[in-house]
Queue: 2 jobs
Job 1
Amino acid sequence: WSSDVCSSDLTSTCVCAPELERKPPKDPARTRMLMFAYSHLGDTLGNPHVPNLGDFNGAVAAYEKMSRLADDAADEDTQNALTQLDAPMSASRLGGARLAQGNPAAALPTLQKSVAALQRIIARDPNNHSYVDHLAPVMELVGDAQEALGQLAEAAASYANEIKLIEPLRHLDPANSSTSATLTESRLKLGLVLSREGDPKAFDPIN
């Protein structure tokens, strides 16, 4: 498997697909396939969480197109649970890429938009724990962006809210290593931010 070949193939797909998208009739399934093509292209170019080509600018450009398609689909079909989830998930990918690009000021509103949308989804279906799994890492990214901007009190609040969100899941499934790791990381980040603020009890959340 070659990242360069994958990037070339995906780029060719993304260049040709918008022309098909403009041709009537508009096809939601085809639009979603294009959205995923941009997502995979962005991942290959510069998703910081997977092996990538280090092209963060290219990744952001691909994710911006993905997010636009997802937002348009969500606006057009407000009753479709899948498209309503695609929009905030796409926004979180875009915000994370902007943060990796070194642009927390651009990342923050995009990530906050994702958090707000996911919170609305959870409010409609509070027993679906998979939505919480989606929301928690985005809340952490919001905290990361706020910390990078020097907004330490806001970052601490974001990390604390993430901890509050995922602690019940750990009690429901103590054997879930992913939830435990996320909780530990969030507590560590909260402690580090509080220590920067001079809080003498900064590392209590880690214990």
Job 2
Amino acid sequence: NQFKPRVLVLMSKVDEALVAKEWSQRAEAELLRQLNLAGSYVLLQPSEIELNTKDLTDQGKWDWEKIYKLTREKSIPMVMEWELMPIQIQQESDAVGIMRERQRKIVVQVRARMAETRKGKDLTSETGLAQKEDKDVLWLSKGDKKVTVADYDHETLSFLLKDAITSLVPSLVAQASRVSWSGRVAMIKNDRVYLNVGRQSGLQVGDI
């Protein structure tokens, strides 16, 4: 059986004004879906291991020393911190003319960092990127109206978000083999040893 490292998943502490909450939630759902589909990790939210996120922060930022200590105590060998970067929209248009062509590009990036908790050392930091270019025409316009995320339909943004995460996931999955199996003895009863990990992590009764 393949050992599946347990991974605590945390969203990066970023300025919520820069990224709409809706798209952060969509990004999280898609990232977890693709990682679960890959089947290389047991993904854990803080609440699933009785951790309160408020207790893991210091002055509004993640307290990594405390996070690594608590995850080691719970035999969780890896932590993943991820974030949806602010969606970028770039535009260029002809300087003059009754009819001016405008080039537009939208860029979606999802960044993730994976660390092993035993030494608190980063294993990888990767960014998945997807972009789309298009153009439109400005008629009798003296100035360029700034294009915003709201000018793009949800279908386009959802496609780019999924594509960015799809490009990111393989590099995250590749880190699973870099972490060795670990666990703690929870109890010894007669000739049986009970560990604090189990089938979810790929450990079966009778394994040696």
